[in-house]
Design a protein that fits this description.
Layout (H helix, E strand, L loop, with lengths): L15 H12 L12 H8 L3 E4 L8 E6 L3 E7 L4 E7 L3 E4 L2 H4 L3 H17 L1 H10 L6 E5 L13 H17 L2 H15 L3 H4 L5 H13 L3 H10 L5
Parallel strand pairs: 1-5
Antiparallel strand pairs: 2-5, 2-6, 3-4
Length: 234
């Protein structure tokens, strides 16, 4: 039996930023040279040549996106008829649930696109090998909304590890370590010009988080986590 685990990248937490840098260096190096809203849809469709389509993937939005690694059938949810059905997809197709934006926010959709693009970049070999040795074709990888607990890593499957990698690298792609510091400094200076912040009516950190989220077009939660993990906010 083929050991598919050999195709799973071994990535430590300390290497997650390097992974995001490797992705951007290959597909859009300007994003690590100067602060910008990373054009992830352009990267996916025009640079990586991934076909992005929208279909509902689950009844309860438990699946935001999936990446199709080989030609085959993919399961989608039909909300009109309240049923699941299969459609044919080509390799290199990314399916995004339209409710990712409609019921969440644009930042969630962009994060999902970064997540799926990273799967295509780093995990394609694993899924191609899995499809080759599987009893039946498994052309897609469905990405659950709720990640597995890190306290149970000893019980994780290969797919769990790859999902952990994509979950952690995606926001780093959208907010590269090379530019976050400059954006923070800019927002910190500009926050002092805000009347509410200047008068102590609004926390400076809250304003900075909101503006950083708007600059990178990510959720406020994602921006706050990123600024804190890099030590810009306590």
């Amino acid at each position: 039996m083929t050991n598919l685990s050999m195709y799973v990248p071994h990535i430590w937490k300390s290497e997650l930023d390097a992974e995001a840098t490797a992705f951007l260096s290959k597909y859009y190096p300007d994003a690590i040279k100067k602060p910008m809203c990373v054009p992830i849809e352009h990267i996916a469709t025009e640079v990586m040549h991934i076909k992005v389509v929208e279909h509902h993937l689950s009844e309860d939005l438990s699946i935001l996106g999936q990446m199709c690694f080989t030609d085959g059938m993919a399961e989608i949810y039909d909300p009109v008829n309240d049923e699941y059905r299969e459609i044919f997809v080509k390799a290199g197709t990314m399916i995004i649930d339209p409710d990712t934006y409609a019921k969440r926010n644009l930042g969630s959709k962009r994060n999902t696109m970064a997540h799926e693009s990273y799967h295509w970049f780093r995990h394609r070999r694993y899924h191609l090998a899995a499809a080759q040795y599987a009893a039946e074709d498994k052309p897609v990888y469905r990405c659950p909304t709720v990640p597995k607990s890190e306290n149970l890593q000893t019980e994780w499957t290969d797919e769990d590890w790859m999902e952990w990698q994509a979950n952690n690298v995606a926001p780093r792609i959208l907010m590269p370590i090379e530019t976050v510091g400059a954006v923070y400094e800019k927002m910190a200076v500009e926050s002092l010009k805000n009347a509410f912040v200047a008068k102590g009516l609004r926390p400076q950190s809250e304003w900075i988080i909101e503006q950083t989220a708007g600059f990178y077009m990510v959720s406020k939660q994602a921006a706050e986590i990123r600024l804190k993990e890099l030590g810009y906010l306590s």
